[in-house]
């Protein structure tokens, strides 16, 4: 009898260790099971319009559908789901996934694997990482992590110009915020799309501007996109070479609508098109001293196979997004807003632009946790206060919710990266500006720790932002999405809603907060969190 039980146990273990593969797959959720991954934009409008209910993490109560075959939902996506019960789901190609009545139903063009990799979220994630997206061993340049980042978008929008960019950069230092950082010049610095030189009427001395920004301690990046304005000299040159995505009939360049009008699209599956753009960007670096580029607007929806033809005949939708994002391989100073299947890579991701409101602030921590569980190791939460520019358009600073801006800033401060765009010295009171300044310097003080944790993760695959259940399995944290571990040392519980109180649940053991107060773990505490406070906990050995 013992022998039979032993053989049965071996058979069960072999079955659990093997991967179930199919191009369509149904996975029944286990009792209490939570899932992370797939996409990290909690405001993905095409999901919301479908009437489904979803949040991070996913569970049996939710009802929604995502289709990664045609969408990246304006942000970062990976064909991966990881479970609090030690399971993960992976495919080498995009899939459609429907969550309904406790069952996840998948459809895809490549085998979809269900793997039992252990009994915990961490075991499932690290097994998936080793098998499908091993870490590169390299981190982005330290400035992205160790100091706050700055972006000119909200202050200048489509009026990027030399005088105001320099004014913004000097104001950073003059208001006592950390320099030695990355400064991104956003869209509309260039003459037109497809041209990689500055508007002369707005930038009378771009090399002088770059030299001055470098002297202030900034690494400077420029916004770029894969689009080319029709009827420009570049358009005529590239059309002759066949470097554009073509119409469905496969003859003429496709002229597609996007948020800035109608343009032709570089075909990133054509080696010549990629080489052409890389050469133009290197010319910008050599001519002006540009340090890197923000690669935007490569969203998968514009690369639908029914609407266009690409050079290699296969790189449509998210795969074309991935090819666009791989431009970052040539430029260590990079940022991506929409990506596909780039887990484990040493690239800088940013959460999608969000409105300047509390609802958006409340998505930051869950979305950052979910991005980590996709295998994106180096992620920045949007722009402080929100990167959706209409939220600040023609708005009187007196009407801006200063508490919301401060709390958004504090969340960023205790993340792997933080990015200012709207100028806090323009919109905040003296007292609230001081709170944000302290938050920026807190991030800089955490910088050496964050860089060291990033270096470890670049080898081990461990993310910097870790769900509580990832770090403390079996303690009832499976659904926790409003606090997290930042590396191994810090439990972060920033405020994410109006008010001055929040609850925090501490794992077993002894803990101490940033004020020195000690707590017994395994309990829930109600904290007083005045506007100047960011609750930070460390375990007492």
Any chance you could write out the topology, listing elements then pairs?
Elements: H1 2-17, E1 19-28, E2 35-39, H2 45-49, E3 64-67, E4 76-83, E5 87-91, E6 95-100, E7 103-116, H3 121-132, H4 143-146, E8 149-151, H5 153-156, H6 162-174, E9 182-185, H7 206-215, E10 219-224, E11 227-228, H8 233-241, E12 246-247, E13 255-258, E14 261-265, H9 271-288, E15 292-295, E16 308-309, H10 317-325, E17 333-336, E18 339-340, E19 349-350, H11 358-372, E20 379-380, H12 402-413, E21 419-420, H13 424-427, H14 430-460, E22 465-467, H15 468-471, E23 484-486, E24 490-492, E25 501-505, E26 510-513, E27 518-520, E28 524-528, E29 536-540
Parallel strand pairs: 4-18, 8-9, 8-21, 9-10, 10-15, 15-17, 19-20
Antiparallel strand pairs: 1-7, 2-4, 3-6, 4-5, 5-7, 6-7, 11-14, 12-16, 13-14, 22-23, 23-24, 24-29, 25-28, 26-27, 26-29
